[in-house]
Amino acid sequence: PEIIVYPSHANFLFVKLSDKIAENIEKHNIYIRQFIWHNEKYYRITVGTKEENETLLNAIKEAL
Questions:
Q1: What 3-state DSSP class applies to 28?
Q2: CA 18 – CA 41 distance, rounded (Å)
Q3: pLDDT tens-place string over residues 39-63
Q4: What are the φ/ψ torsions at residue 9 (nearest 5 degrees)?
Q5: 3 Cα distance to chain centroid
């Protein structure tokens, strides 16, 4: 899968994304924090305003 979202009880999403999606998110000036664990890339995406979240979703849809 190109996106895996892990359960969270915080104000952020912890996800595994394909490089293509991560790069497209950053092209839209959305900065996500990258973590490397067991040589795999994971990302933390903080929940934003409605408009910010819509921009994020559009960036993901565009990459798919």
A1: coil
A2: 9
A3: 999 999 998 899 999 999 999 999 9
A4: -120, 30
A5: 8
